[in-house]
Design goal:
This protein is mostly helical. About 50% of the residues lie in helices and about 5% in strands. It folds into 2 domains: about 5-65, Multidrug-efflux Transporter Regulator, Chain: A, Domain 2; about 85-135. It has helices at about 5-10, 15-25, 40-55, 60-65, 75-105, 115-125, and strands at about 30, 35.
Length: about 150
């Protein structure tokens, strides 16, 4: 298939295919005339790349899961670690959602008087709610704020 056909079928721009090729994620069969050509199996490789990115894997991490011949070489430990990371993010987001719902319905005369809202403010001030600060080697987030207790 030529690059235009692959781009159309995979739903990505041709520039993305050229970039993936430059990064070593996919391999073309070589140009035929002025266009790159790819084996049909490249569509499965592109699907694996898309799946990895949707799961939050970097292109370097996805690259480690593609063998020389483009076949999947799945790193199960990496997938388990990513799943744990996603589970942690889900718990943090669920705690935030509960806190926001509580704040929206809180019977306290002022949010400043609500113990649950004050806990949320304290967590935000400490950076515990800033997921962007999390990275390899970062300290774990403090225990989730309980938002099911009455105000």
């Amino acid at each position: 298939m030529d690059i235009a056909e692959v781009a159309r079928r995979a739903g990505v721009p041709a520039s993305t295919l050229r970039y993936y090729e430059k990064r070593g994620l996919i391999v073309s069969l070589g140009p035929q005339g002025m266009r790159r050509r790819f084996a049909p199996a490249v569509l499965d490789q592109l699907a694996l790349i898309a799946l990895g990115q949707a799961a939050g894997l970097s292109l370097d991490e996805v690259h480690t899961m593609l063998s020389e011949h483009g076949r999947p070489n799945i790193d199960r430990r990496l997938l388990a670690a990513k799943a744990d990371e996603i589970d942690t993010t889900i718990r943090q987001l669920q705690a935030m959602s509960r806190g926001l719902r509580h704040a929206a319905a809180c019977p306290a005369p002022s949010h400043a008087e609500c113990p649950t809202f004050r806990k949320l403010l304290k967590a935000a001030a400490s950076g515990a709610l800033d997921r962007r600060r999390r990275g390899p080697g970062a300290k774990p987030a403090p225990a989730a704020v309980r938002t099911d207790a009455p105000a």
